Fold:
Amino acid sequence: MKFEDFLLMRHELLLTITAMLILMAEIFIDNKNKNAIIRGLSIALFSIVTIIGFLPAPTGALFGGMYVTSGMHVLMKNVLNIGFLIVCIQSVKWLKSDNNNDRNFEYLMLLTSTLIGMNFMISSGDFLMFYLGLELATIPIAALAAFERFSQKSAEAGVKLILSSALSSGILLYGISMIYGTTGSIYFIDIAKTFGTAPLQILAFIFFAAGMAFKISVVPFHLWTADVYEGAPVNITSYLSVISKGAAVFIFMIVLFTVFRQIVNMWQDVIYILSVLTMTIGNLFAIRQQNLKRFLAFSSIAQAGFLLLGVISGTQLGMTAVIYFALIYIFSNLAAFGVIAAISNTTGKENIKDYDGLYATNPKLSLIMTLALFSLAGIPPVAGFFGKFFLFTAAAQQGFYMLVLIAVINAVISLYYYLLVVKAMFINKSDSPIAYFKSDFSTRLSLIVCVLGLFVIGFASIIFEYIRSMSFGLLF
Amino acid sequence: MEKILALTSNQIMFIIFSAVIVMFSILTVTTRRILRAATYLLFVLVSTSGIYFMLQYQFLAAVQLTLYAGGIVVLIIFSILLTSHINQKFEAVSWKTIAFGTIASILGIVVCITSILQFQFKASTLAIQEINMKIIGRSLLNYGENGFVLPFEVISILLLAAMIAAIIIAKKVKDTKI
Structure:
């Protein structure tokens, strides 16, 4: 192994260096403006990491196949990097508040370490690295969910997250140990060669899928989602619903396409059922929610069901559609959460009723929220439509017409409850609407980036073509 | 004759160890006193190390004994003593929960055991080799295939992150200084 080989691990190494620099800054800077310096430094460093991520990179395998990277892996990491940067910019206002001002370093450092974990998870070539990455991506998040010092709900969210993730990790590990027991290897390449359809191996796959379904919060493994999303700070909720979920879907798709390619008919059945349940139940529960964070929690469960449509196809188009949709989903969900965070940080209001008449007082925020919700629902001018369109195409191409029909019906249901929020902002009258307020620079910057993303990704077909050139289908 | 005797004694030891593991595992999750749960867990961990000894994994068995049975159980007991009363009893679980829990566990056991028994495991053809410290140390720092230096390093990041996470959860009192 030569020194240049470490260039393959560019994303992980740069993020680790970033985390260490933030740690050094916390220790060695002795200044009145220490926290402002740390915030500025980390966002500058994250921006540099995100930009360097797009430079052309060597590909290959390292550490005897434990770490693999290809154009597609780099692309997935870049997608996550973009979302991560937006979440960090959105967090600035919240980090400045009195309660959190002395804990900026801890927040940024933990958030970075979760991203390192996700990158290692995506690039893993064996189940050991996969599991370590998964844990590194989950454990610090539990502490971040419990970040609000004086909120009991926040502590509850942390405990619920750590317990449910421990349970799902246990199921996942049991599945992995069965895979190891039946094939004698933990390397993806070796398992893919010998993995068959013995009952024990199918059971192993089901355990593995159940563990992953917990992380992606797919119905019927979704029960932790709403409580955790509601209790955690808004920025962590958006991080959980976008970045964590995206990373878990990506690696689940890679493992299904490579390790379990021999039992493709089995896993397509499993994903079929999970997808139908997730879309339908996520949507039906979202209609009843009053708290906006809970509302978006259930909407994000439903979106995960749509994502599974791309996974089930098992084709190159399917993988392209999943990555493309995830990218759009990052921008639309972060725009919605950005508006909610801005309002929640200023007024503390999080219910749909509080948004009555918002357009009269805060027209810009209402417009951005509307665009984000239109994109989530999949209404043509914004990018969300194209994302859903390609997902449906990918599934229909493989003959899953019933599934696509159910998905379309669900898309219509989702349109109803997204429009409920729009109606509250534009049509409903209120005696005491949320008063006009001016957002700070960081919030505005992140929202502008999101809105630009919503239009650019939809209309610039070069992005879709670029993703397609990197993707692959089932490897036979 | 001697061989058969050796085999059966091995089997007897295995049966004893697994019976202890199953029994005390059930006791650990059903007892209503938290300190007793920790003590029952100790027996589970010690018996597991017995199974490792039977498989000739001396190093793993020693680690299991010192780290889990020795270190972690002591840590658990310490944290119990620091956070709750020893005599505190948990609320009794309702019979519905017990019934559904039992049904779910039995179903899970049946599914797992039948599929495990159906699978044709291939016996290993490799000679039993004592795994000494040198081999373990080498493979821990090996960067080729079957080497573990990358997981080893990633775990260090995980531990650092876990420590910082523990600090922010514990650091609840508001600091007046900036």
Remarks:
- Chain B has a mean pLDDT of 85.
